[in-house]
Amino acid sequence: MADSPTIVMGHGGGGAMSAELVEHLFLPAFQDPAAATELGDAVGDAAVVALGGARVAFTTDSFVVRPLFFPSGCIGDLAVNGTVNDLAMVGATPCYLATAFILEEGTELAELGRVAEALGAAARVAGVRLVTGDTKVVDAGHGDRVYVNTTGLGLVPDGVDISPGRARPKDVVLVSGEIGAHGIAVLSCREGLEFSTEVRSDTAPLNGLVAAMLDTGADIHTLRDPTRGGLAATLNEIARGARLGIAVTERAVPVAPAVADACSILGLDPFAIANEGRLVAVVPAADADRVLAVMRAHPDGRDAAAIGTVTEDNAGMVVARTGLGGTRVIDLPIGSELPRIC
């Protein structure tokens, strides 16, 4: 942060700059420094709190994606799916959402209507109710048509304890499908790029998939959705939260050919590209096969794969075995290769 005394786009990218901003500015300001140090890398996308005898998951998220509409999605359904997925990643059943719109003066009502309709439809698909909200308008030139904030509440079943810190050596790392589609879909639309095959966003609610995984009875240790910063950021967050290493087989990570080709042309790493309908699960080796089978039987996990293991070596680091037999370190991205992606 000493190298960047002002906010830059990288602070919103979900990588090292975002982590520094939270750890060194927000956490000390919001609570005592000792608590901020204790939480460290264990801070997740949703908090689980006790309320009236129930375990309640609570999360909030803001969406500033540009453009508002992209192949297979828009800022409206993205806002619902992103918040529902944050709740699902702690094992919660999403129940209620609040939504707030920040609108730029001059935005067309027809365009806003399309966003609102997509948001409402996505909530119905995910099985959550929109119960409250807010609207604000800013001067023309002081926004980007539509920003959306969503806050979600869900209930965590008894016996479910999911967090990065629960990962254990020899656990198996699973990913629910092909990575990188959302980021490339938004980029192609933003920059007017055309590829041989249209890349469509993977945005989807994952609460149904998570419920099916929990129904197996497996002791799922960790769940995360690899959004900003992609799979690279998520694996690093898990490794640092657990203070263990993660070893990945690069060829085992599913990447659609169109996404791989686009990344090759543009000089991007699929591991660092955002996803909005994928999850990473860390499960005991004894449970891995049945959890993987259930994931593949679900529409949102049909391309699921086992991609690596948790190790005691290289604590806090992610190392990939390449297709050529060598190894490379998968670092936590500094900022974001593709800003304004969610």
Q: Can you tell me the number of structural domains? A: 3
Structural class: alpha+beta
**Mean pLDDT metric:** 93
- What's the number of extended β-strand segments? 14
What is the ordering of alpha helices and beta strands? HHEEEEHEHEEEHHEHEHEHEEE
What separation lies between the terminal Cα atoms?
A: 23 Å
Highest CATH level, the class of the largest domain: Alpha Beta
Using only C-alpha atoms, the radius of gyration works out to 19 Å
GO biological process, one term: protein maturation
Protein name: Hydrogenase expression/formation protein HypE
Family: Belongs to the HypE family.
Domain PurM-like N-terminal: 45-156
Q: Can you walk through the features of this model?
A:
With 342 residues, the protein is an alpha+beta fold. The protein contains nine helices and 14 strands. It has helices at 16-30, 33-39, 75-88, 109-126, 181-191, 207-215, 230-242, 257-266, 285-297; strands spanning 47-51, 54-63, 69-70, 73-74, 93-104, 129-138, 146-155, 172-175, 222-224, 245-249, 280-283, 305-311, 318-321, 327-329. The chain has a seven-stranded mixed sheet with strand order 9-11-8-12-10-13-14. A five-stranded mixed sheet has the order 1-2-7-5-6, covered by helices on one side. Residues 35-41 have low confidence and may be disordered.
